[in-house]
Design a protein that fits this description.
The protein has a 6-stranded mixed β-sheet with strand order 3-4-2-1-11-10, with helices on one face. The chain has a 5-stranded mixed β-sheet with strand order 5-6-7-8-9, covered by helices on one side. Helix 3 runs antiparallel to helix 4 and helix 7 runs parallel beside helix 8. A hairpin with a 5-residue loop joins strand 6 and strand 7. 36% of the residues lie in helices and 20% in strands. It contains 10 helices and 11 strands. By secondary structure, the protein is α+β, with helices and mostly antiparallel strands.
């Protein structure tokens, strides 16, 4: 084959290799990173199919095999993401009533520490008037900019300014109680657990998370990220009160870990049946996926969820408004894990040394 043929062959092999790698049960980022661009891989598979057929017609039958393989890859990748399209039934129902004292709204934004366009985020907060704001990657400078929110009704705060891309700030109009700042993986990667008192006087639990992603520049494996998320899922599983889990989870909604988290925790994803709601990367339209999430217990219904315009970060903010409606539990099916899935979650938790130590101390 000519040099051009080799180049085209490489293009044809890309979707096959990137589909196979995540199927290998290994936590290294090389295997896990291809959970993210499933839509992009599906598109490349679709483009590769006619190239395969062209090669098969004048080079050899091996390309018929590659063509069939790419069709299988396309089907597989589509099945992985189809739940996040309007082609499937929404997991969370729209609330048809009016907003009241059980209504709760949340705005989440990974601000990007080096980004200095705080005025854009503050303008969105003024426009949407959320009850709770969570910023991620926020340092002392961002804290100085966001503290103006305290003059606008956000009287309850949790401030963890860090300059390592894992700072976290929580601003709430609603009362926060039993606030716990956790450092499950390392001392410089926090998460927040708290109880929120709704205007109705009822309580819910919130978890604010920002684990380290598997990547060549941060964590070599997904072990700690997966274990932290799944241990939160195990904790939520045994709660009888309403729960919201939100933040930049550095994982896509359709990954095996995110799906296992839903099964273990019983939490719902309001994006299912509606769309991808991609929040990253804000600067590269062809390379976007949903990294920022809001999961909730099945006693919440939805008013709205949307991705907001750019605030200068590499993430778009995401905004969700929900209705605490206990009767919704009778019409919204709660995900559940079978014995194999529970064991898989326990095995993943046990692989992380920091999380394993926490389990020993906690349980």
């Amino acid at each position: 084959m000519s040099a051009a043929d080799w180049v085209l062959t490489s293009v044809i092999l890309v979707p096959i290799i990137t589909t196979i790698l995540p199927l290998i049960k290994h936590d290294h980022w090389i295997f896990r990173i291809f959970d993210f661009p499933r839509l992009q891989i599906a598109v490349v598979s679709l483009i590769s199919i006619p190239l395969n057929l062209l090669f098969a017609s004048h080079i050899g039958s091996v390309f018929w095999v590659l063509a069939i393989t790419n069709v299988i890859c396309l089907i597989y990748q589509t099945t992985q993401i189809i739940a996040y399209t309007p082609l499937t039934r929404p997991q969370v129902q729209i609330y048809q009533g009016n907003e009241d004292d059980r209504t709760l709204s949340v705005l989440i934004c990974n601000v990007l520490t080096s980004n200095k366009k705080s005025h854009l985020l503050l303008a969105q907060i003024r426009d949407h008037q959320p009850d709770i704001v969570l910023t991620l990657e926020s340092d002392e400078w961002w804290q100085s900019q966001m503290d103006v929110l305290e003059q606008d009704g956000f009287e309850h705060t949790v401030k963890i300014p860090l300059d390592n891309l894992y700072g976290m700030h929580l601003y709430s109009r609603l009362t926060l109680e039993d606030v716990e700042v956790r450092h499950w993986i390392t001392e410089d990667i926090p998460s927040i657990k708290a109880k929120v008192k709704l205007r109705s006087g009822e309580y819910l639990h919130i978890y604010c998370l920002h684990p380290m992603p598997p990547s060549p520049t941060e964590s070599a494996t997904a072990t700690d990220r997966d274990a932290e998320l799944l241990l939160v899922g195990r904790e939520v599983e045994f709660m009888d009160e309403p729960v919201l889990v939100f933040g930049d989870l550095n994982d896509v909604a359709w990954s095996s870990t995110s799906q296992l988290f839903q099964e273990i925790s019983g939490l719902l994803d309001p994006r299912k049946g509606r769309g991808f709601f991609n929040t990253f990367h804000a600067k590269y339209p062809l390379f976007r996926w949903p990294l920022d999430h809001i999961f909730h217990s099945h006693d919440f219904m939805m008013h709205t969820i949307k991705v907001l315009p750019s605030v200068g970060s590499d993430h778009f903010p995401v905004y969700g408004k929900f209705q605490y409606h206990p009767k919704a539990a009778f019409i919204q099916e709660e995900p559940s894990a079978d014995s194999d899935e529970i064991q898989e979650a326990l095995d993943k938790i046990d692989k992380s040394e920091p999380i394993k130590q926490i389990v020993k101390e906690k349980y």
